[in-house]
Structure formats: structure tokens, C-alpha cells
Amino acid sequence: MASIEGTLRQGIPAHLLKGQKALVTGANSGIGLATAVAMGRAGADVVVNYVVGKEEAEKVVEQIRAFGVRAEAYQADVSDEDQVVAMTNRMVEEFGTIDILVANAGMQRDASFTEMTLAQWQKVLDVNLTGQFLCAREATKEFLRRGVVPEVSRAAGKIICMSSVHQLIPWAGHVNYAASKGGVQMMMETLAQELAPKKIRVNAIAPGAIKTPINRSAWETPEAQNDLLRLIPYGRVGEPDDIAAAAVGLASDLMDYVVGATLYVDGGMTLFPGFATGG
Ligand code: BGC
Question: Is residue 27 one of the residues assigned to a domain?
Fold first, then answer.
């Protein structure tokens, strides 16, 4: 299958996010990487957060700097309160402020229910849900401190929570992951309701199957990919740039009236494809 990598990115208007400062967590691989690069392509200065994989993060930084914007890699474990506070404080010191948070960092630790350890359950909740809570809280403090700067954006700040189709679709063998994403949905909607009067827009993207390291086994062999395609009416597995484009759009003033929404970017995975011929 031909890759659309780069194609979407070239279509992103270079000034859409000009002058904005974006923090993307988990930005040294997969969806976070593509999103950080796309934000830079759109004119934002970008902090590339990572927890392990400094070299990859530095490569992402180089890619972003090629657009003529500022980029730095900051290490922080999003589930650690002190590290998140230090990261956001540093961003405000070095970049001046934060305009956009893409709370993307996430992981899977899969196991059948009775095999799942408390450590597996807890780790996924800590990173996928508590991590988004901590990053959103600290970014919000900065949005409130700064307020709206009309030359930069109509909103005081934008938060994009990276959810999953599994905030909706139950997923056997992945109860920790599905529960974390269900939590992200209600956290996002509650924050959106609470923060909209302060001109902070909180939204989510719910990716379907996107080719990244997290789900390599689901697409790397032709057999696996055929199985996967049965779940995707649109007939292709997603690319990280599909999500990056949605994130840039949601973060921009083009979507200024979008508040508390989940944008499913999934090739139709949530359309109950089994019912196309059954039911
Ligand atoms: C998961 C992937 C999975 C996809 C569709 C994502 O949230 O991380 O492993 O392929 O959902 O099921």
C-alpha cells in the first residue's frame, strides 16, 4: 500500500499555528511524532516530550527545526507529578507560554482479564489517564495566567486529548487500556464544560488502527493486515499523519467553535462494520 506519509503534511498551511507554542507528549514515536512535526509545519514552536528514547526525540526536533520554528526535546514521565510540573514550568520559561497541549503519551500492557496484574492495570491508568490529567492541569494554569492574546489565537488555550476508538468499542484482553480511554472521554468532556467559559477549548481525537509501534502485530504481516481491514470500512490502515492533520485542525482557530468534541479518525471503524452485511 502506498504511504501517504508527507503528503498530508505538505497540505498543511504553513501559517495556521504561527506564533503558537505546542507541547506534544510522547512525541518521539508514532502519532505523537507525526503530530509534533505537523504542528511545526503549521508554524508552531514545539516541545517534543519523551520519556525514553532521547535520540529519536532529538531527530524529531531536527525535523521540526527545518521548518524554521523553534523545537526542543524535554524528558518527563507524564505520570509523575513533579516531572510534569517541571516540564511545563520549563516550557513557560524557555518558550514564553503554552498555547496548545496534545496529551498524547499512551501505552498498552495487554493481558487476558484473570492474567492481568495490578501493575499492568495501574501502569496503563497512570500513563494514559493520570498523565493526561496532570499535563492538562498544568497547561491550564498557564492558559489562565496568560488569557487570550487575540493576535495569536481566539482561545486562551487548546487541549487535545488522544483517546481511541476504544473509548467506545469494548476490547477483550485490553481492559486496562479500554478503561483508561473511557476515562479520557469523560475527563475531556468534564474539562471542556468547566474550562469553556475561560476560553479554553478541550477536545479529543479517537484514532482507529494507525500504523505505529503500539499495534505492529496487527498490521505487519499480510494476514494480520487482512484481518484488520475487515474492521475498517474505508479499506486502509491509518497513518500517523491522518491523526496529525486532525490535531493541527482542531488546535487552529478554524475549529474555534469546536468544544468538547471527540473526532473519530478511524476509517469508519466505529460504524459497526459487521452490520454492513449482518443484523
Ligand atoms: C490501539 C491499537 C489498535 C486500535 C484499533 C488503538 O487505540 O492502541 O492497538 O490497533 O486502537 O483497535
Answer: yes
Q: Reply yes or no on whether 177 is catalytic.
A: yes
Q: Which entry of 177, 234, 257, 264 is annotated as an active-site residue?
A: 177
Q: Are 160 and 205 in contact (CB under 8 A)?
A: yes
Say how many Å lie between the CA of residue 263 and the centre of ligand 1.
15
pLDDT value for 278: 85
pLDDT (0 to 100) of residue 7? 55
Residue 99, domain CATH: 3.40.50.720
Residue at 167 is within a domain: yes
Query: Using CA positions, which residue lies closest to atom 7 of ligand 1?
Result: 164
DSSP string computed for 31-86: HHHHHHHHHHHTT-EEEEEESS-HHHHHHHHHHHHTTTS-EEEEE--TT-HHHHHH
Instruction: Please give the pLDDT value at position 23.
Output: 99
Query: What's residue 224's pLDDT?
Result: 96
Q: In angstroms, rounded to a whole number, what is the distance separating the alpha carbons of residues 92 and 244?
A: 24
Assessment of whether the complete model's pTM goes beyond 0.85: yes
Domain count, the chain: 1
Using an 8 Å Cβ cutoff, are 88 and 23 in contact?
A: yes
Profile the chain (279 residues) by mean pLDDT over runs of 10 residues: 51 92 98 98 98 98 98 99 99 99 98 98 99 99 98 98 98 98 99 99 99 95 96 98 98 98 98 93
Domain of 130?
A: 13-267
**Residue at 188 is within a domain:** yes
Pocket test for ligand 1, best of 185, 214, 216, 229 (most atoms within 8 A of CB): 214
Residue 213 domain-assigned (yes or no): yes
DSSP 8-state symbol, 233:
T
What is the pLDDT, as a whole number, of residue 6? 56
Residue nearest ligand 1's atom 4 by CA: 209
